[in-house]
């Protein structure tokens, strides 16, 4: 099966499923593809984003470079979780305390909002934001 975003001459965009691309071509040429909003038979394929599969099996199809990068990110995460103190949503507060010498320097990780991250940067506090991939081990 294949899904296409279609657009009629009045600009309505809708989705339709076909057995394959040849089935779409045959039905469109025969006037059998109809806009569900206005009934127009003048329909063409609309621009659409490529479909990206999201199943765990996709990892096996990734390039060696992509797999290596994913493994490196996972190793980095394990290292941080093992060697750093998790401070959760108190990250910005704890980073400030360390930066200003209110507590002993130690490695921390946690969460910060965009606003908190911007404020830390403006104060000259060094930190890194890492967009961790979603875990599939739950």
Describe this structure in words.
The protein is 37% helix and 17% strand. It contains five helices and five strands, in the order ββαβααβαβα. The protein has helices spanning 21-29, 58-61, 64-83, 91-99, 114-122; strands spanning 2-8, 13-18, 43-45, 85-88, 108-110. The strands form two sheets. A three-stranded antiparallel sheet has the order 2-1-3. α4 (91-99) links the parallel β4 (85-88) and β5 (108-110). It is elongated and about 75 Å long.
Short overview:
The chain has helices spanning 21-29, 58-61, 64-83, 91-99, 114-122; strands at 2-8, 13-18, 43-45, 85-88, 108-110. With 138 residues, it is α+β, with helices and mostly antiparallel strands. It has a three-stranded antiparallel sheet. Strands 4-5 form a two-stranded parallel ribbon.
Annotation, overall tally of beta strands: 5
Low-confidence stretches: none
- Total of DSSP H or I helical runs spanning 4+ residues: 5
Going across the biggest sheet, name each strand in turn: 2-1-3
Helix and strand pattern:
EEHEHHEHEH
Tell the overall outline.
elongated
Percent of residues in helices: 25-40%
Question: Nearest-angstrom radius of gyration?
Answer: 25 Å
* Proportion of residues in extended strands: 15-25%
Alpha carbon gap, first and last residue: 31 Å
* Structural class label: alpha+beta
Main β sheet profile: 3 strands, antiparallel
The average pLDDT value, as a whole number, equals: 86
